[in-house]
Give the backbone structure.
Amino acid sequence: LTDRGKRVPLDNSPLQIFVKAKKKINDIFGEIEEYVKDTVEYMYEVEKEGKIVNKDQVRNIVEYVGKVHSIRDVLQRDHMKVAFFGRTSNGKSSVINAMLRDKILPSGIGHTTNCFLQVEGCPSDEPYLVLEGSEEHCAVESVGQLAHALCKEKLNESSLVKVFWPKNRCLLLRDDVVFVDSPGVDVTPNLDEWIDKHCLDADVFVLVANAESTLMVTEKNFFHKVSTKLSKPNIFILNNRWDASASEPEFLDQHCNEQEEVRKQHQERAIDFLVKELKVCTPKEAEERIFFISAKEVLQARMSEGKPVSVPLTEGFQTRYFEFQDFEKKFEECISKSAVKTKFEQHSQRGKFIANELRDLLEGIYNDALKLKEQKLSERKEVNDKINYTEQQLMLVTQEMKKKIHNMVEDVEQRVSKALSE
Ligand code: GTP
Ligand code: MG
């Protein structure tokens, strides 16, 4: 019924689009860093000569070392972020737990989420949490303990607690997905603060609605605010607790038809909300963003995988389970494509700009060096020409002199021998 056993690492998972792009851009920036460092070393050498490069040019290039280094820092920490919102008790924490395949976040009565909780992967084998404004790692062994730690702290509802969960226990966390759970949108007057603090860098939003009722004004208002601050946010709508409507007594009688009607109505309203009200997608896209699921069932099924006692199943469980898997697939595709664009596009432009700047600068130095060389050569040629001319003149004069002396000697000899014979 379920995808039994642990999910094997599937490297054709849509999340790999982001994972691979992240590796690639990190490698490229590694090369750019080397390239900048080499250039700086070379510039220092050339600057010592004092002819082609001046101190300002060197200083400009040295600044790139810091810039590239901080981009690399950001790139290494980049992740895909999904934030869950909805009215209280709709099952936000349950959906996250179902996706993470473990009871990580407290949920249910007495475990209401009263501040923002961010779950992200950590390389260590033990989970821990970090409160806002603190660096301290607090160990958590169980959900109960986590809930207790959160209650004890009397946290502000807008504050953020980070839960670090071992990457080796969950594929989504291994692949750099970060989950943000929130308190119910109906319990706060601070929606603007929430959005500014927690939403501006989210790649995907999931509205966890209650399939037993229609979308509420508070839920809609929240997303209206989000879409004024972000251009075309990616929003999924999960009609959760779909199992509960399956077991409604009136549905049990005439069953399928009634439930189909309710589904159609919810679907139409949700499409209208995304397409006509928020204007964030087309009707066709909206159909791929709305799902009817039961987080509670999926979590139960996944937690009992491999255990001998299996949970009793409600009518329609399998269909709802498949729909949850379908949501996960569409979600993975959407988040990884969107994150590649929002997280890497700007950096790759910046990388190109830096590489071009360096190339132009080095080309400039090369051209200046060529000019200097040509100048020296032509200077040398002028001197050589002068020397040649003088040498030629000297030769001519010498030859002339030789001739004259020769003639003179002959003349003297003739005259001497004439005088002697006389
Ligand atoms: P707050 O943190 O208080 O805002 O609530 P939440 O939205 O995180 O809801 P939570 O996950 O805590 O779930 C509330 C209750 O609903 C829990 O008792 C869950 O077991 C139950 N629940 C969650 N999802 C489902 C579902 O799909 N079907 C049914 N029947 N119950 C569910
Ligand atoms: Mg909750």
